[in-house]
Recover the amino acids of this structure.
């Protein structure tokens, strides 16, 4: 029997092809996506091959029929924040603009495995944000009401319900951080972050997008006040439009193009323990301790810490911040105390003052930017790609992205989601 | 752990300090345009490399001072007073 069709990068994965792959001893699989070299010119160039860049390329091709598109990535795809986050997806934001944006993203996630024909391992295991005081309970009822008014699922839990949901939490009355209740979003959960990057890369590549790795953008080519291409480590590449999706390195690229952003880059760290048997089937967040925990499908406890609050481009976090995050997590989950940590790392996040993204035009003609997601970019990959592709393809802001423009920092129309970001960033 | 050399207290660990971001930004006149005021409030160089920033020894003497720090390596190249020009 011939396994030739398994060697087609555009094949559809199914149970049948999986069985055929097994019968061929998995020797015949084609790479999931095509590793390309840059052509001299494209209709659209995306700078940055993380989740947002790849999703943008995919939706440019899928929603707008633009396939003469390149994604230029300095390292390898999904090797930056896309592979460094804690894989949490949620839409528990406060303001209507944010609720619309993030819930659209969650809805795309809910159908993403089918849409991409690639299992992103979405697990809607729910998320709880702990209330440690009466004031927390009050602000959470406001938060839950705001979410429900915006059409997003939200509930308040009593201490007994929290205890039932996550028995490993210290819900006793003498706990260091007493738990009085929680806000929960049942549709929140986790997704496999590498699969999100690879799923979008595969989808984009199958539609004709060139994904170019090890290609650093070193400058922008400007003619008559408009951006017409980029200078890269692999030579000049011209483009009708250029979109930047570079997260923590947005300011570096903006400087190359000659403008400033209201962004500060910080290191945000996370860590995982050795794998253990299933013991935590929800995502637990606590603003009081500034960290959060979930259990990966492999069994590792995934712990996210707060920001290291000084500007940094070093992809490692301070020991003191890690210590605080661990100490707080152990106070919540005393049984974690004997778990050895296996890995600790940090990603460089692009934080803006109102904790809301920027998706749209820059001061330069034909140069667009998607940034400012700060500590919460992973959950927004689908909507970031969807809305950024829309503005790149049509020149008009997507209605979901209209409030999230760069000029809001000069007009004063900020969307201050600092409180809604879930943990104290 | 990063250590900072407080001009009054000497070398101390980073958790004793709070970073106040980019230092010595000239404040425009109160009557300036929205564009200029927004730029002053929010827009920053955010360099990858040397950054002039202010720190406060919050859990020590409480004094502010300026440093030049490399944002890639976290190496501190200079410490200088709030009113002094950058070295």
């Amino acid at each position: 029997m011939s396994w030739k069709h398994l060697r087609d990068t555009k094949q559809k994965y199914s149970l049948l092809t999986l069985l055929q792959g097994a019968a061929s001893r998995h020797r015949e699989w084609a790479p999931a996506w095509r590793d390309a070299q840059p052509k001299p010119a494209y209709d659209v160039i995306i700078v940055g091959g993380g989740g947002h860049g790849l999703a943008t390329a995919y939706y440019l091709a899928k929603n707008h029929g633009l396939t003469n598109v390149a994604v230029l990535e300095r390292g390898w795809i999904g090797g930056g924040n896309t592979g460094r986050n804690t894989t949490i997806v949620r839409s528990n934001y406060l303001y209507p603009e944010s609720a619309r944006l993030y819930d659209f993203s969650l809805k795309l996630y809910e159908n993403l495995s089918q849409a991409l024909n690639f299992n992103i391992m979405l697990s809607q295991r729910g998320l709880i944000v702990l209330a440690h005081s009466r004031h927390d309970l009050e602000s959470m009822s406001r938060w839950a009401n705001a979410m429900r008014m915006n059409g997003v699922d939200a509930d308040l839990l009593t201490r007994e319900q929290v205890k039932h949901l996550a028995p490993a939490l210290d819900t006793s009355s003498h706990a260091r951080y007493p738990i009085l209740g929680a806000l929960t979003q049942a549709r929140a959960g986790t997704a496999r972050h590498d699969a999100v990057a690879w799923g979008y890369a595969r989808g984009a590549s199958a539609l004709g997008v060139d994904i170019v790795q090890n290609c650093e953008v070193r400058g922008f080519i400007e003619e008559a006040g408009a951006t017409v291409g980029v200078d890269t480590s692999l030579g000049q590449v011209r483009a009708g439009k250029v979109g930047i999706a570079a997260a923590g390195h947005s300011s570096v690229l903006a400087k190359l193009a000659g403008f400033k952003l209201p962004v500060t880059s910080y290191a945000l760290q996370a860590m995982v323990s050795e794998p253990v048997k299933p013991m935590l089937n929800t995502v637990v967040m606590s603003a009081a301790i500034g960290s959060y925990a979930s259990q990966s499908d492999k069994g590792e406890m995934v712990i996210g810490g707060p920001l290291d609050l000084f500007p940094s481009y070093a992809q490692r976090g301070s020991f003191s911040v890690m210590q605080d995050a661990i100490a707080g997590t152990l106070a919540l989950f005393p049984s974690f105390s004997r778990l050895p940590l296996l890995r600790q790392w940090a990603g460089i996040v692009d934080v803006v003052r109102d904790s809301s993204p920027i998706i749209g035009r820059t001061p330069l003609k034909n140069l667009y930017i998607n940034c400012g997601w700060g500590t919460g970019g992973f959950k927004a990959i689908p909507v970031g790609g969807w809305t950024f592709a829309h503005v790149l393809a049509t020149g008009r802001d997507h209605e979901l992205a209209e409030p999230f423009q760069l000029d809001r920092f000069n007009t004063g129309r900020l969307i201050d989601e600092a409180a809604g970001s879930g943990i104290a960033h | 752990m990063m250590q900072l050399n407080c001009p009054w207290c000497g070398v101390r660990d980073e958790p004793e300090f709070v970073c106040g971001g980019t230092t010595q930004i000239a404040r425009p006149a109160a009557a300036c345009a929205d564009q200029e005021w927004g730029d002053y409030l929010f827009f920053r160089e955010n360099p990858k490399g040397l950054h002039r920033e202010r720190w406060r020894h919050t859990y020590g003497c409480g004094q502010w001072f300026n440093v030049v720090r490399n944002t890639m390596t976290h190496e501190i190249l200079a410490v200088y007073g709030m009113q002094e020009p950058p070295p």
Summary: Chain A has a mean pLDDT of 94. Chain A touches chain B at residues 249, 251-252, 255, 260-265, 309-314, 318-320, 352-353, 409-412 (CB under 8 Å).
